[in-house]
# Entry
Amino acid sequence: MDRRHFLLQLSAALGTTCLPALAHAQASGTRLRVAGGWRMNERDYQIGALSVDWEQGQVKTEFAHTLPTLPHAIVPEEGGGFLAVATRPGTWIVRVDAQGKLVQRLTMAEEGDTRTLDGHVIASHDGRWLYTGETDRKTGAGWVSVRDAKDLRKVAEHRTHGIDPHQILVDAQGRLVVANGGIPRTPEGLKRNLELMDPKLVLLNPNNGEKLGEWSLRDKRLAPHHIAWNRPLADSPQLLGIGLQAEHDDPSKRRDAPLLAVWDGKELKIPTHMVADGYAGDVAAGPNGGFVLTAQFANRVVLWQPQEPAKLLTIGKVQNPCGLWPLDDAPGVTIGGGLGLARWHATEPGHMLRWPAGMAAGNHWAVLG
# Structure
């Protein structure tokens, strides 16, 4: 493996505080079992699980299932299984158990084929319900479907009060936070009429769909897509990190656009205008109550911390970085790149491993229990 082409740099962030014991962090991150989606040999779209051993330098495929289109989000479930959702405009959602068996599959055609999935799913705190963001094929209106977690079937639906709802999270009170990307799209999912963009963050009551709040940025060409909760320090508020995707007509405006917005439950702000080519592939919790983001077009991984809100610290240079997942009990992340996995930790050397031969990795991955 040519290290220079895969991972140009991974560095430790300075000034981290409240770190767990290093020995525990190293032990917990030595081996991982991860689920994801990929294209195999330029032909087959697959989902499955990989076994990752950082010490031995090995990534092995445990199992794989072929599906008709590209997967997007991967959501782990209790017991070691996971859910996978098709990328926009999505037509399927599946469940795989801990042994690798595909145990449930739902197609949107079974529900009348008037909606497409927008790529993500999230469970309620009690695990009874699943929430999927969807788009009406004819009108473009955004919807969230409430689904029974046992069989994936829809039991209720609510408007998202926007369009292009990409990712949904559940807050501490069980309410839904919806990132309406606001991008008008064709039924095939292609962008159109960007001058009509209307991105917004919306807070919903999951029981009746009541809109509890709405927040927008001044620049309507900044689309919120991926969102993540931070790990707040003591006596600090819970923050939502919002990865922004710039959709300006002028390439220079896209390049110079901000990468991150932060919501504290009351205000939506852009804390830093440091340039990272205006496109966040993903966002995840980072050290010191901050966020790690993949600046995908800039081939960089960056760290934002609330103690220095005007700064974006480059912590890694990775070819085509996208999906992130935080390491358990440690201020670090694993990064899905174009050629393989990278691991960054605030107090440890960086690591990198190539994907198995023939695999072109999808956007998102998740650690399995």
About this structure: Confidence is low (pLDDT under 50) at residues 1-8, 14-28. The chain has one domain: 3-367.
